[in-house]
Design brief:
alpha+beta, 146 residues, four-stranded mixed sheet, 4 strands
Length: 146
Amino acid sequence: MAYSKKVVDKFENTLKNPEKFNVGRFDPQDGDVGTGMVGAPACGDVMKLQIKCKQEGNKHIIEDVKFKTYGCGSAIASSAELVEMLIGKTLDEAKEIKNKDLVEVLELPPIKIHCSVLAKILLGKQLRIMNLNNNAKFQSLKYFIY
């Protein structure tokens, strides 16, 4: 199995310059931040995603995103790519992001598609909780095991 050049570049650039690729965390007490974590026991990948929103009228705009991922190059690249896709989108627009979008952009090999699925599951859970709360505030997800 060979990684695509896009996966290798995203992975290496994220490691070389983590701040530029939004690796990190927000203050967990910030009410405008939703934190989620998901893991895949089969492969050992764990993703943590924090989304910070601002309200504009009746819409919530994803203002900033931070992540930490422990796993293979494809898992880290998938997380970094998801962050880039999210910033500036409304929550409704974010719901439209599919794992196949990550697969296509990164040219993930078939054996690594689960990395994009993990990222999408995490995003989906956070957005569903946001909607259940009438878009008022994010609630943090402690753990969701995939």
